[in-house]
Amino acid sequence: MRNTSFASMHCSLAQSLELIGDWWTPLVLRDLYLGLNRFDQFVTDLGISRNLLTDRLATLVDGGLVQRTPYQQNPVRHRYELTEAGQELVPILMALTAWGDRWATPPAGQPIRFTHKTCGKVTTPTVGCSECGEALATQDVVPSPGPGGRTAPGTALIASVLGLEPQAQ
């Protein structure tokens, strides 16, 4: 179970972590992307407890990342699939997997490869600029205040680092 909630933090990263910020959720999302879609498949693949999986799936459904539809009536059983929001998260998980391949590779080697359908080549997923497509590196990006930027829980000091004046709450 989670010990901390980020729901009150004024930060898009914190709000994202509120939805996906536990150890099991990215693995459930990965399994959905790879084609698993039934409760028992997740239990078997991940070795996750049924109670914990029930909680994680409910959080994903409530957060709009996964939809649940019945495929059997007696007893009622559900199939799960990624929503548009869930599908947009998959490339981020691919990039995290690529980071793991570089910095935390399992002893037997890279467990999965990604092939880009367009060019047919095995690819290493990266995070790129939405404008020019160039891969992003920390030294090449300058953070600046957004329209919702303010001093608030989760950004108490970040706002001043970005040059925002403290605002009354």
UniProtKB/TrEMBL annotation:
Residues 11-108 form the HTH hxlR-type domain. GO terms for molecular function: DNA binding. Keywords: DNA-binding, Transcription, Transcription regulation. It holds the Pfam family HxlR. This is DNA-binding HxlR family transcriptional regulator. It comes from Kribbella aluminosa. The lineage of its organism: Bacteria, Bacillati, Actinomycetota, Actinomycetes, Propionibacteriales.
